[in-house]
């Protein structure tokens, strides 16, 4: 199994485990105790409540908090996107290295690893750049789930609706929109040219839709807004419309061997 896919599945498993933690359906307040409550869930609830007071609805408040979170993570996301782009550009050289060091003995593989790391350094590729933003966003995403769930179970809080979507309830329509947005983001990013990431490009949207049809629309709204920001980021950095066309290899013409036999021409001459 591909290492990135294994990491992704592991993170999803951890997310599902943490999302089932106790207290997720309990009311939330500034007196709630515990590291998770004090430093992740309550700050998110406070931020959403604050912007609700400024903007009038919880829907706009969630959008504002999502934009702020993504702006904070923007340097990491840009670094991830650029590293993925550099990795894609390094693929021909990486393939050549694999062919050069095809032998599986320890000495050859050690040389392969050394030259591969040198290639990554030269091309500006950081293999860990793709993992760090995911690791940072996962607690935030789980925290958002807990914040919305606990706000929904707090008698003094009414999440209301955003457009036609009740934020406290699941929405199939919004879930489908989130899945489509996720596919567009992956389609305009490095995954479009990376065979190892293509499975994620088709798997992730279905997973987003699956989560969206059972989770509150407030969390799905977070995904939609986050994906809109990611799409803008991809268009600015990756520029999918500037994809370089791969030139077709020039076909070699077969070499005609001179057999020395004489061939009569139409003019009656002899051609060797």
UniProtKB/TrEMBL annotation:
<keyword id="KW-0449">Lipoprotein</keyword>
<keyword id="KW-0653">Protein transport</keyword>
<feature type="transmembrane region" description="Helical">
    <location>
        <begin position="160"/>
        <end position="185"/>
    </location>
</feature>
<dbReference type="InterPro" id="IPR001708">
    <property type="entry name" value="YidC/ALB3/OXA1/COX18"/>
</dbReference>
<comment type="function">
    <text>Required for the insertion and/or proper folding and/or complex formation of integral membrane proteins into the membrane. Involved in integration of membrane proteins that insert both dependently and independently of the Sec translocase complex, as well as at least some lipoproteins.</text>
</comment>
<keyword id="KW-1003">Cell membrane</keyword>
<comment type="similarity">
    <text>Belongs to the OXA1/ALB3/YidC family. Type 2 subfamily.</text>
</comment>
<feature type="domain" description="Membrane insertase YidC/Oxa/ALB C-terminal">
    <location>
        <begin position="58"/>
        <end position="239"/>
    </location>
</feature>
<dbReference type="InterPro" id="IPR023060">
    <property type="entry name" value="YidC/YidC1/YidC2_Firmicutes"/>
</dbReference>
<protein>
    <recommendedName>
        <fullName>Membrane protein insertase YidC</fullName>
    </recommendedName>
</protein>
<keyword id="KW-0732">Signal</keyword>
<keyword id="KW-1133">Transmembrane helix</keyword>
<keyword id="KW-0812">Transmembrane</keyword>
<dbReference type="InterPro" id="IPR028055">
    <property type="entry name" value="YidC/Oxa/ALB_C"/>
</dbReference>
<feature type="transmembrane region" description="Helical">
    <location>
        <begin position="197"/>
        <end position="215"/>
    </location>
</feature>
<keyword id="KW-0813">Transport</keyword>
<keyword id="KW-0472">Membrane</keyword>
<keyword id="KW-0143">Chaperone</keyword>
<keyword id="KW-0564">Palmitate</keyword>
<feature type="transmembrane region" description="Helical">
    <location>
        <begin position="58"/>
        <end position="78"/>
    </location>
</feature>
<dbReference type="Pfam" id="PF02096">
    <property type="entry name" value="60KD_IMP"/>
</dbReference>
<feature type="transmembrane region" description="Helical">
    <location>
        <begin position="125"/>
        <end position="148"/>
    </location>
</feature>
<dbReference type="InterPro" id="IPR047196">
    <property type="entry name" value="YidC_ALB_C"/>
</dbReference>
């Amino acid at each position: 199994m591909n290492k990135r896919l294994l990491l992704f599945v592991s993170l999803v498993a951890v997310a599902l485990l943490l999302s089932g933690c106790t207290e997720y359906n309990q009311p939330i307040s500034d007196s709630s105790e515990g590291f998770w409550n004090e430093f992740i869930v309550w700050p998110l609830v406070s931020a959403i409540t604050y912007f609700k007071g400024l903007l009038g609805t919880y829907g706009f408040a969630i959008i504002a908090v999502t934009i702020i979170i993504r702006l904070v993570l923007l340097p990491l996301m840009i670094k991830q996107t650029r590293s993925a782009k550099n990795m894609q550009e390094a693929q021909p050289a990486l393939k050549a290295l694999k062919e050069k060091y095809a032998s599986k003995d320890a000495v050859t593989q050690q040389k392969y690893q050394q030259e591969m790391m040198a290639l990554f350094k030269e091309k500006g590729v950081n293999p860990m750049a793709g993992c760090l933003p995911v690791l940072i966003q996962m607690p935030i995403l789980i925290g958002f789930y807990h914040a919305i769930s606990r706000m929904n179970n707090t008698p003094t809080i009414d999440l209301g609706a955003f457009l036609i979507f009740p934020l406290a309830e699941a929405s199939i329509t919004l879930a489908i929109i989130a899945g489509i947005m996720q596919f567009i983001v992956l389609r305009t990013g490095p995954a479009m040219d990376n065979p190892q990431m293509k499975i994620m490009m088709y798997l992730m949207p279905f997973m987003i839709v699956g989560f969206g049809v059972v989770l509150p629309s407030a969390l799905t709204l977070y995904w939609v807004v986050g994906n809109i920001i990611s799409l803008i980021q991809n268009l600015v950095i990756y520029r999918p419309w500037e994809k370089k066309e791969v030139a077709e290899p020039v076909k070699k013409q077969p070499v005609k061997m001179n057999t020395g036999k004489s061939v009569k021409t139409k003019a009656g001459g002899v051609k060797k």
